[in-house]
Amino acid sequence: MAAARERMIQSAGTLLRERGLAGTSFREVLAHSGAPRGSIYHHFPDGKNQLVEEAVRAAGVVGSQMIAAGSADGDPVAALRSFIRLWGHGLEASDYEAGCPLVAVTTAASAEEPALRAAAAEAFAAWHEALAAGLREAGLSRARARRLATTILAAVEGAVILCRAEHSGQPLKDVGAELELLLHAALPAGAG
Amino acid sequence: MAAARERMIQSAGTLLRERGLAGTSFREVLAHSGAPRGSIYHHFPDGKNQLVEEAVRAAGVVGSQMIAAGSADGDPVAALRSFIRLWGHGLEASDYEAGCPLVAVTTAASAEEPALRAAAAEAFAAWHEALAAGLREAGLSRARARRLATTILAAVEGAVILCRAEHSGQPLKDVGAELELLLHAALPAGAG
């Protein structure tokens, strides 16, 4: 049963990325995960939003672990490249259909769904903190690390959207090249 | 009748920004625009997607005119500030509910709606070209202007999403400050 629950959360994450919040219905999640109809109501008695919240929370955890792993060798430029490579792979593997589940929820959750929005904000904050931690370790001030981490996160998320629109990986490559220049200029001499 | 048509297109644009593609139904557009029920089918006989396409096209035209107006005095840093101010005003005026209609369509249109996706891609391309033109006029090479314009567009779009998630204007301010540094470093001495 635990495995079925995990599978449904993963399917919800994939559907959010490819079809947005409206395209992530229980019906679609059942079809995608192959889970039996009864089990979705068993595991998510509060309905679709409970499942979406869990998928967003899972993305927050997995994403910040991936960012931390990319930062492990202490080189923020290598960490940036790793972050961009992850997104590039996701775009290519999905033929430019898969975006970001947090963006999907933020842009489509209505004001009447505050829990969904809060879950997306928390997951974004976790990714941001993972990026900022790597920058602080490389010698940047707290304030500059925060600002640069916001810029990296924003620019990469925006680039993923442009890649989907253009059906091309070029925007992500272009943004990566400019962010590297920004990082090089920001880092203390000898770092990065 | 022409005025009612315009009003419906404007309402569709507002709803796309605040509620996403799924929240931009004929029913919502009628309620928002106050247009009579019959007129929406008269003006948009091909249905909701025809209306959304027109709203996206209108955003492409208006947005690139605004970017060009912000670039009119030949200073790319001033143009960047004007672009960011526009987004900041839109976020504040809507209590951080209003994002970008092109992002809404790109993240939610399915592969079965290629015309919607193409309209969003065209509008993004118009905004990008308006940004790149200002950078070329300031002395940047064609290639660098393209890369920087992509980065500005991506980072600002991403920042708008982070602002909505956080219910705060701070991400846009932080991204604006970093983009200014990037621009200053890129511009030939004496420009900007």
Report on the architecture of this protein.
Two copies of one chain form a homodimer. With 192 residues, chain A is mostly helical. Helices cover 77% and strands 0% of the residues of chain A. The first copy, chain A, is built from nine helices and no strands. Chain A has helices at residues 2-19, 26-33, 37-43, 48-70, 76-93, 101-108, 114-137, 142-166, 170-186. Chain A is elongated and about 60 Å long. The mean pLDDT of chain A is 93. Chains A and B meet through helix 6, helix 7, helix 8 and helix 9 of A and helix 6, helix 7, helix 8 and helix 9 of B.
Terminus-to-terminus distance of chain A: 46 Å
Global outline of chain A: elongated
Question: What quaternary form is this?
Answer: homodimer
Main pleated sheet of chain A: none
Q: What percent of residues of chain A are in strands?
A: under 5%
How many individual helices of chain A?
Answer: 9
Mean pLDDT of chain A: 93
Greatest interface and its residue counts?
A: A-B, 48 and 48 residues
Global Rg of chain A: 18 Å
The H-and-E topology of chain A, N to C, reads as HHHHHHHHH
Low-confidence stretches of chain A: none
Q: Which structural class best describes the helix and strand composition of chain A?
A: mainly alpha
CATH topology of the domain at 57-186 in chain A: Tetracycline Repressor, domain 2
CATH architecture of the domain at 57-186 in chain A: Orthogonal Bundle
DSSP E strands of chain A, number = 0
**What is the CATH superfamily classification of the domain at 57-186 in chain A?**
Tetracycline Repressor, domain 2
Reading off the top of the CATH hierarchy, the class of the domain at 57-186 in chain A is best stated as: Mainly Alpha
Helix content of chain A: over 70%
